[in-house]
Structures are given as C-alpha cells and as structure tokens.
Amino acid sequence: MSVQAETIKLSPAVKMAIEIGPLAAFFLANARAGIFVGTAVYMAAAALALGVNWWLTRRVAVLPIVTLGFVLVFGVLTLALKDDVFIKMKVTIINLLFGLALLGALWFDRPLLKLALGGSIELDEDGWRKLSLRWGLFFLGLAALNEIVWRNVGTDLWVDFKVFGMLPLTLGFALLQAPLMQRHMLPEGEQKVGELDRPGE
Fold it and tell me: From CA 5, how far away is CA 116, in angstroms rounded?
C-alpha cells in the first residue's frame, strides 16, 4: 500500500525568511566586502534557501528552481569574468522571461499562474487570466525599471534598489491583487471537488 506524503504548509514567517534570506545575505555581504563576495554569498544563500524549503515541505515549485538556475548561471559569469554587469542583467532577463512567458501562454489561453499557484489558491478561469495578465505586465515593468536603474547608478545603489526597491514593489503589487483574487475565488465546495480530481491525490 502506497502512502501519499502530506503537503506541509509553511508559516508566513518561515516562508518570508526563506524568500528574503538570500537577498538580505546579498545586501550584507555586498556592504562589507563588495559585489563579487556578495554575488558568491547570494548564490550559496539562494541554493540553501531552496534546500531548506524542500526539506521542510518535501516539494518545491517550478519558479524558485528556475530563479535559482538564473542566479547560479549569472553568478558564475559574474565571478569568472569579474564583471558585475552579469548579475545586474540577471534581474532584467529573468523578469523579462517571466513576463513574456505569462503573456505568451495567455495568448494561447494557458494561464501559467494556474499551474504555478493552483495548489495554494483556487480561482475561476477568468481570475487566472486576469491575474496572469497583471503579473506578466508587472514583470515587464520590473525588467525595464532594472535596466534604467543599473545603467544610471553605481553598484551599491543598485544593490539597495534590488533589496529595498524591487522587493517592496513586488510585495505591494501582490497585496494589490487581493481584491481581484477574492472576487474570483472558487466556492469552498468547488475547491474540494477540484482537489479530489487531481491525479495522484
């Protein structure tokens, strides 16, 4: 008889610590030892955070894995070539790709957010489309904003912007989506049916 592992949900405080920890480590290391040490610390902290998340929940979403891949690739390029442009452009490229992926999939009526977040929230199809459109445009905006900032300020100011600018912007934008999500939240009964219909459950 097979035993299905229970899905463990992290407390908001633990989840926030896992998500913000690598950025905090990046900021502190950059302030003390410069961008290259900061980049190395950021890579290690991001990998550790993903490992801790898997250890606590026994599952990891696709987006954190993709993000870690970009951090490692552009981090290695930054350190190997001693050029901090790569770690700066990583932010632009990953936001650009996320934005284009969300909008491109939406064009084919395949809201990717439903695949990424469907296990944690349950929305109707119209809600997933609207949410995917908003996040797609937001990611494109972040990509453009990052390009403007890193090309016009020094490295330390860019790190400040990445930690204290982009993070609050993202959190604030996420909070602003709450009314939309509430309007399109599926009734409790329909959520239960959806959960029973999922393969492997």
Answer: 20
Give how many domains the chain has, as a whole number.
2
Query: What tokens does 73 get?
Result: 């690739």
- Are 99 and 88 in contact by the 8 Å Cβ rule? The answer is no
Same domain, 27 and 94: no
Whole domain around residue 188: which residue ranges? Answer: 84-194
User: Nearest Cα to 166, choosing from 152, 148, 178, 192?
Assistant: 148
Same domain, 88 and 66: no
Mean pLDDT of 49-64: 84
**Average pLDDT score over residue span 87-114:** 91
Q: Is 0.90 topped by the overall pTM?
A: no
- C-alpha distances (whole Å) from 182 to each of 15, 114, 127, 185, 190 are 22, 15, 9, 5, 15
